[in-house]
Amino acid sequence: MFVDKYRPTKVSEMILTSEVKKLITGIKKKKTVPNMIFHGGAGTGKTTLARALCNDMNIEVLELNASLDNSIDNVRKEVMNFSTTVSLTSQQKVILLDESDNMSHQMQKALRGVIEKVSNNCRFIFTANFVERLLEPIQSRCTLVEFKIDGDKRVEKSVLNHCVTILKKEKIKFKQEDLLNHVQHYLPDIRKVVAQLEMSSNSGSFVFDGKTTAVSKTTAKGDLTIDMGKCKKLILRPGRSKNWMMQVFKDRKKHRKSSGASDRKVAELKLDDYYNEIYADEPSKDQILESIATMEKTLSHLRGVVERMK
């Protein structure tokens, strides 16, 4: 798969904004990694940069995915066991907490003291799509690094060149204009640019499909429109969005006849759209299992909301 095959392993291979590149260059020169939060949209290179930086600096890394393991005891045990032992390379250690915005407040509170306690031996790099979900005491202990590439023409050019390199290595024919349209269509999600590049090259030549849905903020069915950003929050934090979902169905119920879709069907369609948007790019086995469990739980919750309104 192109996404894995052409994933950067060195900082020099990364596509970064000038601000982020300057910061990372400075860190490498000082040979000391501070506690950091890499935050920004999906597919912008947060996790890949964290891995590449540690690889360049020959740093021992413990990588934990907060979406897959939300057990406070398990995480605390792994973090303490790793951070309190001496590195095999006599270098500083790093704990990479991926998708850290999915950590519970209890887990974040448990980590506050740990960050300071092990600071001489170990540093933390958090990645997050929504930095506001991290508690202020966590943010104040870290350097915030924003991955904001939307509208950056230099980044756009670099992504285009990266796609050209991939297609040439794979001996796939393409038209420069089609490739540019493809890149502009899917940016700022670089991962999706590469994933869809492969999907559009199955015939041996690249064909840009302008009908393929890019990442959007809203998705509409008939007269019913639901903000996909809010749907994401609903999936990740169902309890917090219960009132919002009830209001959506109440406000839109009068349009049910004209749209030709029941409230329950609309809820199912919204969840399908969410799944396609988030997990369309060759999901891993863990992501599939995680998404199935999450979708079943949330769909059950939405059905309950709909039933109570009837």
Task: Record keyword descriptors for this entry.
Helicase, Ruva Protein, domain 3, alpha/beta, Rossmann fold, 310 residues, 14 helices, 7 strands, 52% helix
What can you see in these coordinates?
By secondary structure, the protein is α/β, with parallel strands linked by helices. Among the domains are: 1-145, Rossmann fold, CATH 3.40.50.300; 151-204, Helicase, Ruva Protein, domain 3 (Orthogonal Bundle). It has 14 helices and 7 strands. The longest helix is centred in the C-terminal third of the chain and has 25 residues, at 285-309. It is globular, with a radius of gyration of 22 Å. Residues 215-230, 232-244, 251-266 and 277-282 have low confidence and may be disordered.
Brief account:
With 310 residues, this protein is α/β, with parallel strands linked by helices. The chain is 52% helix and 12% strand. The strands form two sheets. A five-stranded parallel β-sheet has the order 2-3-4-1-5, with helices on both faces.
Q: How are the elements arranged and paired?
A:
Layout (H helix, E strand, L loop, with lengths): L1 H4 L12 H13 L5 E5 L5 H11 L3 E6 L6 H12 L9 E6 L6 H13 L4 E7 L7 H5 L2 E5 L5 H17 L6 H11 L3 H10 L18 E4 L2 E4 H9 L5 H11 L3 H4 L3 H17 L5 H25 L1
Parallel strand pairs: 1-4, 1-5, 2-3, 3-4
Antiparallel strand pairs: 6-7
Helix pairs in contact: 4-5, 7-8, 8-9, 11-14, 13-14
